[in-house]
Amino acid sequence: MNEDMTRAELLRRGAAGAAALSVPALLAACGGSGGSGGGASTEELKKVLNFANWPYYIDTPQTLKAAGIHKPTTLQQFETKTGIKVNYYEEVNDNPGYFAKVQGRLSKGQGIGRDILVSTDNDRFLGEYISNKWAQKLDKTLIPNIKNLIPAQQHPPFDPNRDYSLPWASGMDGIGWNEKETDPVTSVKQLFEDPKLKGRVGVWNSMGDTLGLVILENGDDPAKVTDAVFNRAIARLQKAVSSGQIRKFYGNDYGPVLAKGDLAATMAWSGDIANLADPHLHWAVPTHGGIIWTDNMIIPLGGSVPTASTYMNFMYDPVISAQWALGANYISSVKDVKQAAVKLDPKAATNDLTFPTDKTLSQMHQNDPAMLTNPDYNKKWLAVQGQ
Amino acid sequence: MGSFLHRHRSLTPYLLLAPGMLWLAIFFLVPMVFLGYQSLQSGLFPHFQFTWEFSNFSSALSGYHTQLVRSFVYAGIATLACLVLAYPLAYWIAFRAGPWRNLFLLFIVAPFFVTYLVRTLAWLNILADQGPVVRVLRDVHVLGPDGRLLATTFAVVAGITYNFFPFMALPLYVSLEQIDPRLLEASKDLYASSTQSFLRVTVPHSMPGIVAGTLLTFIPAAGDFINAALLGTPNQAMIGNVIQAKFLESLDYPTAASLSFILMGTIMVMLLI
């Protein structure tokens, strides 16, 4: 399809990009048909699935216990049901770093020893995997449960027909703090300017997440980023870096540092703080709003399409997805998950991380996809990190 | 073959050299040429074109001179610190440790049994804001109540000093150990005080060790990026961090390649001076 992308196709992509996914629609699960097509592959099912994911991103015996669910983990259930052993690697710390690690082999058409990897729509790299043809087509004949994909996620700009990707989870950008080290920190202004936090503040090394929150703090719209908006945000961040307020640009590795107390407060992803299971750690949506994003599963070159597709189908069962969502504290893109979750745990409906309230969702925004791919912006983004 | 060598005896040294030369050609010259080729390309990943883009060098230099200068300053301080710390130690092992020499040398080398990365990660815990070192320093008021070690210039330079210490200590030991004790006796016989004999006999004779140690410490330290990445903040970024990010994160190979050449060139010029 990419080979001969027509003008119409380009326009459609552009329009989809501009419209993006409206936030309330993201979770408004209602009817809609699943995708079709995707040629059945002749490849054989493998005995092992190699899965590259981010830390704190799946139900574990501990998180299930905390959620009051007495069942084997979803990974264990998958292994029992299919006989496929899962090697689950928590090796994605950030999108640019992981992309850097694998792009050398992928660009030569070689596999990376993984059947599934997870990459975020809120960064430029997911689009790179797909447009460079480093991702393989899903085998939709093996994913009948794709009919459970919520409508808001069916036609994203980077993969309009969901031929190459399926959502793993959505999450929110906010601020986490350690109450032993500081009073509640609920705004980017406080994070960047409170002298009591000097040198003990973390931000992300991904542009969309960090600058998204700064743009909101500036009162600008992250969905429509002009040069002026971008420069205002980067200048504000630069000031906080130069003054020594910011300790480091983190990937997913801010968690233990915050728990240890070297960081007093940091930009943090919604489910992580809950998954760290430390009563002194807290998370909040910043006063000027947060950013919502979706991580997507893709099958990199060399990965086994039928094995990966079988796993994806398993995860798109609402009951399985509900258990995962409550154990991982992130947002599922599967229909009817809330009903299934309430059956597992009557209190589930009040979990604002997994089932954000309308109030929380009204504070969420999405990033301008054009900002993420602008080379000039990317250059400035690296420069502010001293690179 | 045997008779061939017999007839062309003058070829023997060259044949013996050949494997080493081949190794250099494959693993040093070829990558160098490739790096040079890449440093003159332009365009965006993965579509680079060779265009004799000499402006890569000037823009890299104007964009990253801060990190370049910082790298040499950090490497310089660390080298000096290594020298000051290692000299007495090497002296003591060479002249005073007697039968324990090898044991103490082993202590110097022992950290090498653990990977570089893990050793540096250990410092993250040792110097942590809530760690024992900072707590003690705060209690004795060396550090203020909010003072810290981690994520400061001190931590980065100390990390480099620690990691490259053996490269300084070992050459110093070798050169000190080789000093003929009769020379020191002679200087005493000629009424030199111990300071004088140290300055006029020991130091000049250990000069090869000082030079070798300085080179072995300074050159890799200037290109180091692990210490700044783990123990510093963006305000401590060194040129190695920039090159690493250019190659692996922004995929800006031409700028990364030209920065590598600038780093190599600067070190070379400093060596010649």
Entry keywords:
heterodimer, A: 387 residues, D-Maltodextrin-Binding Protein, domain 2, eleven-stranded mixed beta sheet, 17 helices, 11 strands, B: mainly alpha, MetI-like fold, two-stranded antiparallel ribbon, 3% strand
Report on this model:
The complex is a heterodimer of chains A (387) and B (273). Chain A contains 17 helices and 11 strands. With 387 residues, chain A is an alpha/beta fold. Chain A has 2 domains: 7-32 and 44-171 and 293-356, 3-Layer(aba) Sandwich (D-Maltodextrin-Binding Protein, domain 2); 173-291 and 368-384, D-Maltodextrin-Binding Protein, domain 2 (3-Layer(aba) Sandwich). In chain A, strands 1, 2, 3, 4, 5, 6, 7, 8, 9, 10 and 11 form an 11-stranded mixed beta sheet that branches. The radius of gyration of chain A is 20 Å and the shape is globular. Chain B is mostly helical and 273 residues long. Chain B has one domain (63-272): MetI-like fold (Orthogonal Bundle), CATH 1.10.3720.10. In chain B, a hairpin with a 2-residue loop joins strand 1 and strand 2 (47-50). In chain B, helix 2 crosses helix 12 (253-272), helix 3 packs across helix 7 and helix 8 (181-189) runs antiparallel to helix 9. The mean pLDDT of chain B is 91. The interface between A and B is medium-sized, with 30 and 24 residues.
